[in-house]
Amino acid sequence: MKSLQIITSAIALAAMAMPAYAQEFTGPSVGVQGGWNKTDVRNPQSELGPLALEGSKDAFVGGAFIAYDYEVVPNVVIGAQADFSIGANDEIEYLTSVGSVTLDPKRSIDLTARAGYVILPGTLLYARGGYTNARVRTTMTVGGTTSSGSEDRDGWTVGGGVERYVWKNVSARVEYRYADLSDGDGKFDRHQVLLGIGYRF
Fold first, then answer.
1. What positions does the domain Outer membrane protein beta-barrel occupy (predicted)?
2. For the whole model, what pTM was predicted?
3. Run of H or E residues at 178
């Protein structure tokens, strides 16, 4: 985690030191993003019922996004974004005296809106929020018998970040997101720090 913080800080400082461009934050864009993902669970609900599972897992996450932004008045930007991401080695396994439980997030889809303010030429500070959905596979082994099931977990996500032009039509961003995918009394939370590169048309 410490190394990720150093990398994130270095990229953010490098982006701020790059020359700004005069482009507005208006129009469609596509891009890729990746970074740190942490999932925290405590007795979550599942297709197999309540799980006696507690733990967390740090992993790498990567994906792609498509977005549209519009500068409604000078320096004020609103937009919408859809993104798809997959984690690597993000399974959470919990061993019990009679078997094991494994929670394996397969992919996630976020549909979010954002609002931001152009704090410097070519630099946008923004907040984000909206809907998230995670496809999760659960595997339970008890007394030598294994059962499994997959489900789509619906939730909400909020966060924010900074985006800056680094070249003509190309911008870089650093963003934090929190997501709550809990159901009932169980806990299923996700934290992410994402670095992204986008191309604006």
1. 9-201
2. 0.83
3. strand 170-180
